[in-house]
Design brief:
- By secondary structure, the chain is mostly beta strands.
- The chain has three domains: about 160 residues, Immunoglobulin-like (Sandwich); about 120 residues, Immunoglobulin-like (Sandwich), CATH 2.60.40.10; about 130 residues, Immunoglobulin-like (Sandwich).
- The chain has six helices and 24 strands.
- The strands form seven sheets. Strands 19, 20, 21, 23 and 24 form a five-stranded antiparallel sheet that branches.
Length: about 425
């Protein structure tokens, strides 16, 4: 009876004030709330912004106050953010108003709050569902407060961490002084938005001993859905390595590991996490061939007999012993030398003949030489006349070494040996 009484009074008041006929059927209706659209307006590595548009319809033949709309964002049944929308405007009679409900998903908050969502992103999930639960509270004349619930569903992309791929470690250059290792890999951004390029630290260790360190820094961000190639070059000098720590000089190779580590501190949702990868491979340890001057053997001396003819000469043989301490064969492409005897340069020469030295073997290369000694006749004559038992000599030069070992570049092994020989 009371409700009917109030309704009749409301109808009478409205009719007197607006001259509008308002029936009990009109009063029995509720305002209508419907979804107009829901979309993401901005997505970045920090979070996603969205906009939900809802339509509020006034079924009455009179204007009504704009409702207070309270909303709450849920992901995986966990409430993340709330908000409220109020306006002092009115919704005209038999009219509708579109209401914008903005919302924000903070990835750091989301991942710190809901571990299952973070785990899903690490396992490759690209999006997750969300619910926006709303309540529209109308303060209607006579009828008082009326609350209408409404719910919106949608999808928001998940943030995925950058990752390494396409790892490769190879020998770029090698000789008997050291190795240059080339490491190449890609930094992938699987997201539909750009990410800060992560700082990457690398550490190359030999036989579990850290040998060389470095880093990769770039100012440009990782573009959306991009693959950015990265190259690292590691120079290993054998002398430095042997000086830094004990590695078996007799070994033919050592265990090498290139460790990559990248802090994700620039991405708040992954703060405290590190992207890491290890590349393992064998480091070849090349041994510089040893070169030993084995001495001078005089085969023929024709000094005084050739004075009148002007062709005084000495025929002799000089010997070089080449030892290959490696597990692969080497080729001696050429050998050049300068020989000084008793402080005077006697000759400069070499051999263009190629000689192969098998793995862990040694060979002796004899070089037959003849010199005309007329300019040195006094000195040689004095040596012969004095019959000195031992004569000092110095032989220096270099041997050009090549090999079929992949990556090995031609290398000139120098030598400088001295001693005494019988003349």
């Amino acid at each position: 009876m009371k409700r009917t009484h109030f309704l009749m009074m409301f109808i009478l008041i409205i009719s007197l004030c607006t001259c509008v006929s308002l029936s009990t059927t009109d009063l029995a209706k509720d305002p209508v709330i419907s979804l107009d659209s829901v979309e993401l307006t901005r997505v970045a590595f920090t979070g996603a912004d969205g906009l939900c548009k809802i339509t509020v319809e006034n079924p009455y033949p009179v204007a009504i106050p704009f409702p207070r709309i309270e909303w709450e964002l849920f992901i995986a049944d966990v409430a993340l953010t709330t908000g409220a929308i109020e306006s002092e405007t009115v919704i005209k009679a038999k009219n509708a108003a579109i209401v914008d409900v903005p919302f924000h998903v903070d990835y750091a908050d989301l991942y710190n709050t809901i571990a299952s969502v973070k785990d899903a992103s690490k396992n490759g999930a690209k999006e997750t569902g969300f619910n926006i639960v709303m309540t529209a509270a109308f303060n209607l004349p006579v009828l008082g407060e009326k609350k209408l619930p409404f719910e919106v569903e949608g999808k928001t992309p998940l943030l995925q961490a950058p990752r390494f791929s396409g790892m490769a470690l190879s020998i770029g250059k090698i000789d008997f002084t050291g190795v240059t290792l080339n490491c190449s890999f890609d930094v992938e951004n699987p997201n539909a938005f750009e990410l800060p390029f992560p700082n990457i630290d690398w550490d190359y260790s030999v036989d579990n001993n850290s040998f060389a360190k470095g880093g990769v820094e770039r100012a440009a961000p990782l573009a959306a859905h991009s693959v950015s190639p990265v190259a690292i070059h590691v120079d290993v000098k054998y002398a430095d390595m042997y000086e830094s720590f004990q590695t078996s000089l007799a070994a033919n190779e050592a265990d090498g590991v290139l460790s990559l580590a990248s802090s994700l501190a620039a991405i708040p949702a992954f703060a405290g996490e590190t992207l890491s990868y290890n590349l393992e491979g064998k480091l070849p340890l090349l041994k510089t061939p040893s070169i030993r001057f084995t001495g001078i053997t005089v085969r023929n001396v024709n000094i005084f007999e050739g004075l009148l003819a002007g062709n005084s000469k000495i025929d002799f043989t000089i010997g070089f012993e080449i030892e290959n301490k490696n597990s692969f064969a080497i080729h001696l492409d050429s050998l050049a030398y300068t020989l000084a005897v008793n402080g005077s340069e006697w000759m400069t020469g070499g051999t263009p003949n190629k000689t192969e030295v098998n793995a862990n073997q040694k060979v002796v290369i004899p070089i037959n030489a003849t010199i005309t000694v007329f300019p040195l006749i006094r000195e040689i004559g004095a040596l012969v006349a004095s019959r000195k038992a031992n004569v000092p000599y110095v032989c220096e030069g270099g041997v050009t070494i090549t090999s079929d070992l992949p990556g090995l570049e031609p290398f000139v092994a120098p030598f400088n040996v001295s001693g005494v020989t019988r003349f």
